[in-house]
């Protein structure tokens, strides 16, 4: 991740408005957001990401209230098999005559759900472990470092696949892990290493700072110091890290679905690409193109937005 | 120095132990008894019992000399992983797959490194210009296209439609013939992220003091770039290259599947679709061992080059 940090450092003209306006102090967040809002391209990308998220949310609502609209009716036959794109079906139809457009829209829900759940799982594991390791050091640190060194010595894709294969269709505590549950568990349980390492390093750095010493000196409990002082001070790093990691999660979901380890009976982008493997030789390109475009736009938007977010929030870059 | 190497060697033991624990938890505790699955539908109780006996599912998990826990360690440390679903020893399958996998990944990897490092030099040379900005944008766009799309469209257009390359692997093709297209696709797909990384490395170096000194004493940009910057940028480049080597043995999961190259990635995909835990277990373990060994070699090399390392 350090590459993007440095790239932007070189591109950005150094803003000197901090010195010019010696007015009221601003917090890191409001300052960062102000700077972010000034970047037109980043804001456009943010809107694109928002569209994807609200589409996913909207499909959840539609399924909950049983609204009969496009994406939830993906299973309906709207035309003949493999009809090319036309005014009737903008993106054509697949082998069963289902609308590719509806399937693509529905796939958004699967991808966003997987990426969000995987993010939550890996933050929930990585942040506390990293904070404990960095704050207490000693035996706890050794054990946590041992665990993540072990995990990171297995190639990432192999690790995800191994988890996904084993977890699929397993019943754990009476709950059957089907389809996307196994996918986001596999991604989440394997990708907390990066965030854990990052937080551990930052906490070690912050631990010697004055505000932590002050908190210690007036007798704050360790839990309070970690959760009230240290984590809020490194929290922007978590957000930056995840805006960039989200893309990797989406791509991982696509590969897992493609390998048949994902959602089996509902459309997802990976499954659409898997269908397209056979279709392409028959000249049916629209399903492939639709899934690719859907993945491409959210990845591009997240990549650009993540970089801009890093520029705006990372205080190390503000000094220059 | 010797003390450092010994310490570093000892440090690999907990990691190997950790990997063994991980695979044990994953495939034995969570994966569990899959003899029913192996036997298939409608198998008699005797067949199931036989399978259980062969794979050791009937043995206690812990706390016995013949427990599954001990056997898991034994098989891993002796590299004897038993037989795959088709009755062939797993280790033989892996040995057979290494060749084709390396034939694909080695040219692909070095192609990516050489092309992206040279492009990065060019981009760093013109940095700040419209060329630089558009190169970065193309990189980010390339990183956003899913890998599967690169493979599918590449295979469709270059092999199927225009017939420049063979579509699938077949035994009578020479290695160069069947590796060319997948390697090309791999290079194109990997270029975005790598170019961006190396560009950052170059630009980082270009802000160092010695570059300013070189410019100040009147050297031209070309000379500074090739004589000074490239040499210093080699350190992060070599680190990245060495640490990527163990992953080359794994082959490329998706490329091998699409082009039918009988390497380790292909073996892995087959194991996933037949849920052959034993093959996946062996692959996970072996790749982790390779990673640990290469990491060790890198660290020892560093300590030879940089005396500060061993003082820690």
What does the model show?
The complex is a heterodimer of chains A (320) and B (312). Chain A is built from 14 helices and two strands. Chain A is globular and about 75 Å long. Chain A has a two-stranded antiparallel ribbon. By secondary structure, chain A is mainly alpha-helical. With 312 residues, chain B is an all-alpha fold. Chain B has a domain at 90-305: MetI-like fold (Orthogonal Bundle). Chain B contains 14 helices and no strands. In chain B, helix 5 packs across helix 12 (264-273), helix 10 packs antiparallel against helix 13 and helix 12 (264-273) runs antiparallel to helix 13 (277-305). Chain B is flat, with a radius of gyration of 24 Å. The N and C termini of chain B lie close together (11 Å).
Distance between the termini of chain B: 11 Å
Estimate what percentage of residues of chain B fall within beta strands.
under 5%
Q: What is the number of E strands of chain B?
A: 0
- Which overall shape of chain B is indicated by the principal axes computed on the Cα atoms? flat
The CATH architecture designation of the domain at 90-305 in chain B is Orthogonal Bundle
Name the structural class of chain A: mainly alpha
- Mean pLDDT reading of chain B: 83
Shape of chain A: globular
CA gyration radius of chain B, whole angstroms: 24 Å
User: What's the β-strand tally of chain A?
Assistant: 2
- What's the rounded overall pLDDT mean of chain A? 83
Provide the CATH topology of the domain at 90-305 in chain B. Answer: MetI-like fold
List segments of chain A where confidence is low: pLDDT < 50 over at least 5 consecutive residues: 1-19
The CATH superfamily of the domain at 90-305 in chain B is known as MetI-like
Tally of separate helices of chain B: 14
Largest sheet of chain B: none
Biggest interface: A-B, 53 and 57 residues
Q: Distance N terminus to C terminus of chain A? A: 20 Å
């Amino acid at each position: 991740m350090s590459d993007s940090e440095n790239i932007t450092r070189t591109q950005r003209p150094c803003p000197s408005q901090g010195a010019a306006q010696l007015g009221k102090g601003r917090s890191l967040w409001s300052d960062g957001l102000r700077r972010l809002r000034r970047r037109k391209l980043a804001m456009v990308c943010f809107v694109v990401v928002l569209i994807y998220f609200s589409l996913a949310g909207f499909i959840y609502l539609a399924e909950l209230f049983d609204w009969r609209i496009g994406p939830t009716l993906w299973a309906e036959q709207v035309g003949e098999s493999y009809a090319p794109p036309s005014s009737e079906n903008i993106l054509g139809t697949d082998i069963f005559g289902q609308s590719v457009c509806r399937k693509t829209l529905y796939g958004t829900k699967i991808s966003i759900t997987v990426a969000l759940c995987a993010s939550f799982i890996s933050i929930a594991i990585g942040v506390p472990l990293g904070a404990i390791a960095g704050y207490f050091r000693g035996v706890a640190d050794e054990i946590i470092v041992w665990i993540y060194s072990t995990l990171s010595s297995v190639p990432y894709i192999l690790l995800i696949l191994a988890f996904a294969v084993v977890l699929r269709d397993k019943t754990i505590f009476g709950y059957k892990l089907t389809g996307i549950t196994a996918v986001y568990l596999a991604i989440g349980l394997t990708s907390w290493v990066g965030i854990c390492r990052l937080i551990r390093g930052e906490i070690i750095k912050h631990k010697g700072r004055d505000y932590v010493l002050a908190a210690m000196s007036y007798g704050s409990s360790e839990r309070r110091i970690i959760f009230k002082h240290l984590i809020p001070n490194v929290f922007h790093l978590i957000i930056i890290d995840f805006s960039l990691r989200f893309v990797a999660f989406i791509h991982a979901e696509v590969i897992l679905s493609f390998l048949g380890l994902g959602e089996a009976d509902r459309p997802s982008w990976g499954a659409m690409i898997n269908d397209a493997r056979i279709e392409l030789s028959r000249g049916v390109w629209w399903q492939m193109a639709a899934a690719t475009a859907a993945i491409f736009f959210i990845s591009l938007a997240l990549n650009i937005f993540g970089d801009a977010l890093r520029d705006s929030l990372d205080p190390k870059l503000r000094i220059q | 120095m010797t003390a450092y190497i010994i310490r570093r060697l000892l440090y690999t033991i907990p990691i190997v132990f950790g990997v063994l624990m991980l695979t044990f938890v994953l495939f034995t505790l969570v994966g569990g008894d899959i003899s029913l699955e192996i036997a298939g539908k409608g198998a008699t109780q005797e067949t199931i019992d036989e399978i259980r006996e062969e794979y050791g599912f009937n043995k206690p998990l812990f706390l016995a000399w013949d427990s599954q826990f001990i056997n898991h360690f034994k098989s891993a440390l002796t590299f004897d992983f038993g037989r795959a679903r088709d009755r062939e020893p797993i280790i033989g399958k892996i040995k057979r797959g290494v060749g084709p996998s390396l034939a694909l990944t080695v040219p692909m990897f070095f192609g990516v490194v050489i092309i992206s490092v040279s492009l990065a030099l060019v981009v760093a040379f013109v940095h700040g210009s419209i060329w630089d900005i558009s190169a970065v944008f193309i990189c980010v766009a390339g990183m956003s296209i899913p890998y599967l799309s690169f493979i599918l469209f590449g295979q469709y257009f270059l092999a199927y439609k225009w017939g420049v390359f063979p579509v699938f692997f077949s035994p009578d093709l020479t290695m160069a013939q069947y590796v060319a297209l997948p390697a090309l696709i791999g290079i194109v797909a990997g270029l975005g992220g790598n170019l961006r990384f190396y560009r950052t490395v170059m630009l980082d170096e270009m802000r160092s003091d010695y570059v300013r000194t070189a410019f100040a004493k009147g050297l031209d940009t070309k000379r500074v770039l090739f004589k000074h910057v490239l040499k210093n940028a080699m350190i992060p480049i070599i680190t990245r290259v060495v640490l990527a080597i163990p992953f080359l043995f794994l082959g490329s999961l998706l490329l091998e599947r699409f082009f039918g190259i009988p390497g380790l990635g292909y073996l892995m995909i087959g194991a996933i679709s037949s849920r052959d835990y034993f093959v996946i277990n062996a692959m996970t373990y072996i790749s982790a061992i390779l990673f640990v060994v290469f990491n060790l070699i890198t660290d020892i090399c560093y300590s030879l080059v940089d005396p500060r390392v061993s003082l820690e």
